[in-house]
Amino acid sequence: MKNLLTLTLLIITAFHPQAQQDINLPGTVVEQNSQFNTGKVNYLSNAQIKSPGANPQLSDAHGKFTLVFPDKPFGNIATIYASKSGYETVNEEELKKAAVLGRRVPLKVVMCQAGQLYENQVAYYKIARDATLASHRERMAILQKEGREKDRLIAEMRVEFNQEIATAEQARELLAQQLEVAEQRAQELADKFVTVNLDDQSESYQRAFRAFLAKDIDGALTILDSVDLEYRLAANTTEKKKEEAIVEEMQKSIANRDEQIAQDVNQCVFKARLFILKYEFAEAEKMFELALRYAPEDEGLLVEFAYFLAEQNRDKKAVQLYEQALNKYRVLAVDNPEQFEPAVAATQINLGSMYYTLNKFQEAEIAYMESLKICQKLASTHQDRFEPDLAYTLIGLGLVFSAKNQYENAEAAYQQALEITKRLAQDNPQHFEPDMATTLNNLGSMYVELNAYTLAEAAFKQALEIRKRLAQDNPERFEPEVAGVQNNLGAMYTELNAYEAAEAAYQQALEIRKRLAQDKPERFEPEVAGTQENLGMVEAGRSA
After folding, report:
1. 456: nearest Cα among 506, 496, 512, 409
2. Ordered domains of the chain (ranges, CATH)
3. Residue 516 in 3-state DSSP?
4. Stretch 456-462: mean pLDDT, rounded?
5. pLDDT at 21
6. Closest to 392 in 3D by CA, of 329, 358, 426, 439
7. How many CB atoms lie under 10 A from the CB of residue 200?
């Protein structure tokens, strides 16, 4: 299964850079004016939050959610839709143009119980209308009098309306015209008030609004007059600019540190890869360990280190790292399944392979079954992209089922894998014919265990034909596999007492392995010795 590990490593690392493109939009859902009315903010759970281009989310028990966009929204603005049974959204207009990048605080979705907006709007309208009518009556009463108060009001009205008013009669006519739009003005003010979340306002604003609700407009103004707004605005703006400059400098410094750490981690990995080329595996491991110490959240690094350890037969530690990567991918897949479920499946393929190597067949089956479920779902909509993963999973399941003597399940898995790889090989034979040959070789070995020698021979010969053809263009990679199939055929023929056929198969395997041992004796000389021993068993069988 080592070849399987190589293939799945490429799958996982292909997903890792894509994660950097995700744009997160965190937010909270609150009930409007809940703290203002009760003294405590009511965070709303199970509100559905949606936006084009992001997977829908439900707010949690604390009202929190995170929309994940696979790429930056057009113009950096997203339209957010919120809904919850028994509630209506208050700040819909704000949500229509929600900034995504550069947001300093989470997006706040404000909702109220169904019907509350209307009730508030009616109440605010009545207060605003009555206040307007009271002001109208007060002015009309002044204009009915004689004296300085009337003259002062007319002078004020000249300034307010920017027009010449010579007599009290003209002033009364103007006020009468204003009364005609009082209803509309009261409605407009009510529309504005109703969307304000009082929980977000200052203490003085809240006190003034309580006075407004009590129909004490003068009292509300007195409260607001107690705050030197001009001074506060100027002072806060000045301080904000200073703080922004400090924050900007700190952000640059932090970003620079992050970049340097990332570069140094990459240098560690680069050194590890170079040490691997020099067969200095202990030094390579030190570099991987150092990189992982400072980048423990890097899923791709965990996978690469695990693969390296698996190649060194450090299977238990490799499994630990794969399990860490799997846990991280699972967490990421909760909010973004489309992005990270493939990585979960690929990691499970790797883990299944490792468990199989450790003879932990139950754990291997569980890992492969999760991968199978994910790959089947993904391949149903993205066939070309995910069918290879599905085939690798089925091959692994075939091995596990065979090891557990569940031969019917093993055959079904192998046959499905063979069907997929045959179809894929039509368009890309160089890539998928090796998988076809592996599946056929595995099938042949299983049929031998079942004493189904005719089926076994047919499977081995198909695998041999494919591998011989591939070895013509790439002998270094595929000649060892040709020798492996020949060795399997020799063993099968020996069981059948077909000694001549067994000898011919072993001799072809021996010829290849001897040739390979000239360049790589440490790898192939043991196989030469094994094949010679097999030939000796053939001679012994003949003589018996």
Report:
1. 496
2. 23-114 (2.60.40.1120), 117-195 (no CATH), 336-543 (1.25.40.10)
3. helix
4. 94
5. 58
6. 439
7. 15
